[in-house]
Structures are given as structure tokens and as C-alpha cells.
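Anyone up for a design puzzle?
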């Protein structure tokens, strides 16, 4: 997974560093380091997919951005109106996360 700016994640950077080291040395030790780093990255990605964490994070961003946009577009809204909008969006977020439980794993 890349970060929002298109640059590598830390895990991707570590994997590329291990790959570069192995490509330049071709030693068994560097091959084992590359295999270990790659294994950790693959394991982390599988866990995120099985747990739905990527989707939960996307739902969270969507919720926060929606609330921010509402507040920006309604600068005169009372605290009660803002609270109601926040509650509505948080309930929508919670429903989306709960729906992940019923979705197939992969």
C-alpha cells in the first residue's frame, strides 16, 4: 500500500533496501534478510485484508472528511446541529464497519 502522496510505505522501503542489498551482495545472509522482510510485509498485508483494517481506515477517513466538509459548508450551524450531523455520520461509519463482519474474507 502506498501512502497518499505516492511515496513508499516504511515496509515497502525496508523491502526495497533489503532487495538492493541482496542484489549487490548475493549472499545467503542478505537473501534471508530479504525473505524475512518480505515475509513480514506479506503477513501484515494478509492480516489487514482478513481483518478489513484497510476498509475500516477508509471508512474512518470518509467519516472525518464528511464532518469537516459539513462544518466548513455550515459555519453558522449551532452546536446541536453539528452534534446531530456528527452522530449521523458516526452511526453510518459504525454500520459500514459492522457490515464488514458479514462480508467474505477475501
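Challenge accepted. My sequence:
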Amino acid at each position: 500500500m502506498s501512502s497518499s502522496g505516492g511515496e513508499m510505505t516504511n515496509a515497502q522501503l525496508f523491502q526495497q533496501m533489503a532487495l538492493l542489498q541482496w542484489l549487490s551482495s548475493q549472499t545467503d545472509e542478505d537473501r534471508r534478510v530479504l525473505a524475512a522482510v518480505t515475509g513480514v510485509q506479506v503477513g501484515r498485508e494478509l492480516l489487514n485484508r482478513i481483518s478489513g483494517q484497510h476498509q475500516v481506515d477508509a471508512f474512518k477517513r470518509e467519516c472525518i472528511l464528511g464532518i469537516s466538509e459539513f462544518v466548513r459548508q455550515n459555519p453558522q450551524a449551532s452546536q446541536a446541529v453539528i452534534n446531530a450531523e456528527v452522530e449521523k455520520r458516526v452511526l453510518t461509519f459504525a454500520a459500514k464497519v459492522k457490515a464488514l463482519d458479514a462480508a467474505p474474507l477475501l
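A detail worth pointing out: Residues 10-51 form one domain.
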